[in-house]
Amino acid sequence: MSAHDHHHGPAKGLSRWLYTTNHKDIGSMYLWFSFAMFLLGGTFALVIRAELFQPGLQFVEPNFFNQMTTMHGLVMVFGAVMPAFVGLANWMIPLMIGAPDMALPRMNNWSFWILPFAFAMLVSTLFMEGGGPNFGWTFYAPLSTTYAPASVTFFIFAVHIMGASSIMGSINVIATILNMRAPGMTLMKMPLFVWTWLITAYLLIAVMPVLAGVVTMMLFDIHFGTSFFSAAGGGDPVLFQHLFWFFGHPEVYIMILPAFGIVSAIIPTFARKRLFGYDSMVYATASIAFLSFIVWAHHMFTVGMPLAGQLFFMYATMLIAVPTGVKVFNWVATMFRGAMTFETPMLFAIAFVVLFTLGGFTGVMLAITPADFQYHDTYFVVAHFHYVLVPGAVFSLMAAAYYWLPKWTGYMYDETLGKLHFWLSFIGVNLLFFPQHFLGLAGMPRRIPDYALQFANFNWISSVGGFLFGFSQLILLFVVIKCIKGGKKATAQVWEGAQGLEWTVPSPAPYHTFETPPDPSLIKAQ
Amino acid sequence: MSNDVTSTNNKKIVKKLLLGVVGMFAFGWALIPLYDVICDITGLNGKTGGRVEVAEAGLLIDEDRQVTVQFMAHHNAEMGWVFEPSVAQVTVRPGEVSVVSYRVTNPRTTLMVGQAIPSVAPNAAAAHLNKIECFCFEEQLLQPGESADMPIRFFVDPNLPASISKLTLSYTLYDITEKSGKAQAVAVR
Prior knowledge:
The complex is a heterodimer of chains A (526) and B (189).
Chain A: H1 14-19, H2 23-51, H3 62-97, H4 105-124, H5 152-179, H6 192-223, H7 237-254, H8 257-271, H9 278-291, H10 307-319, H11 321-335, H12 344-367, H13 369-375, H14 379-409, H15 415-441, H16 456-485
Chain B: H1 3-42, E1 67-75, E2 82-85, E3 89-92, E4 98-105, E5 112-121, E6 129-134, E7 140-142, E8 147-156, E9 166-175, H2 181-188
């Protein structure tokens, strides 16, 4: 590239966004896309909660209800949470390590722009004859092969495209982190968000190809007469579950490790102390990533496993609580005796620590094999994974949005509205998911549009919480738009206690940053 | 670091990572045979082995032990055949060869081909149920209205864990008419 290319601003109009190779533009597009998907997936969730508000069938047919649970899961996992983290990686990693851009800017453009097509294809299945995917986001065969609606082929190709996008995104992140760091930015001086993303990217590269393989096998079973998952032809439906969860369990950590990185950036800033136990945080992240590969069968304890297998997967799963505990204690120790203030990002981060830990505890309960036989496929499981994903991953994303919004827009967001958004979300999310623990323990199964009368009260509370949480998110949209339009000017530092290279560039961050590497004296140990 | 060095290094990393992607894709497919091998070795999933060739007279019979073998028959939703074992259960001594048969009838007006898939519960017993002869080793072709008695000759391995005194052999019959070479051969005739 000639020096000339570096010094123009963004192009005008739509072509800026179509052809851009700028990490900030692509990061913004990822974030907007994932927010749109968050609202869409949330709408699907509200259809579910509306139907479950009362026992009986009120609004939708059972088959459409199943399509809603399936699409809600797929859109939230692959459309909202994952692209949002990729967006943050695009925006923040080059700024944090002092790089001028991502390592592979053209591929970066491509990995974003195939996503809208994947989701357009996925969502279009809802309007096809026979309806969209209705087999749950885990798409167990043969429900997703022999008994699937005709639109399943579109679902398969959509998953292929999402997989390709994720793989390209991860290659880009790894190449950037390994190869583009400013002089003086050693691996053990990198901010934890960068570390967690490096490990997440390796996880993605390891498991997304397996997912691609699984859906390809489904495609062959459906259209080419093979029998990978059909017992009639000598295949095995349980094989599907093994393959799926070999992808699926690391996927869970793909959605939470970057969240750990975000919280590890925010808590020190607002506690005005260095992060406690930086090295142990890095090793804990790597341990969790390793363990994620050897625990997959805890999702399928009830398929009929030998005792040795059940014990192995039970103990391996419980072992994950150790590095996770290290992290939680480190966050608490960072806050201990800190000069804490409670701006919106910090509120979300603290809520993350508390509520994610709660979700972690129910995870340990589910890891206990004999107990899992009781809880399997009940609302207890739904409560567990929503606690780690919503006040876990999603709260970390909101914390990140508030934390870096002044850096992105150059203006401070409206703190009053931010706090209002936090408290409504906090109350809403707990009203929504806490009663689901009780529903599950009482025996209410997941993925049903109607239920026995004794579950009515808790479902009523849960639905009220769901609508409160859902509509509260419009406040976030309003705050972001208001912040882009203007407000109090943000300084380069933005937050009094903020540390790191991203706070050494002006706010808003100029279109091109760190074209010459930053002064090594700015790079401090974490 | 100059731009050229950076871009060469980038290419090296991308190559390695792409290799990783291809490797993991291949690993995903390799899990299929791996799964079968593990199930074969351990008997997990209740899968029984193939035909066992033994001299029946040479088998050592454990006179002091009795094991109950129960028989079950299912067919999958589209099959429509009548399929049942001739006896519900037999009591055998480990090492002793027994013969039971399953009766099958095709009530349909069309020729059909079925394939039976065996499964043993508990899983730990699967590797110890040896079949000398079994209809599950072959496809079953039945003309419209035709019936057949399908034999199975088996013995229980004396190494069967002492904790197991009862095991269940279950067959599920699948319609493979469309995929079967046998049906096509008949159709051509």
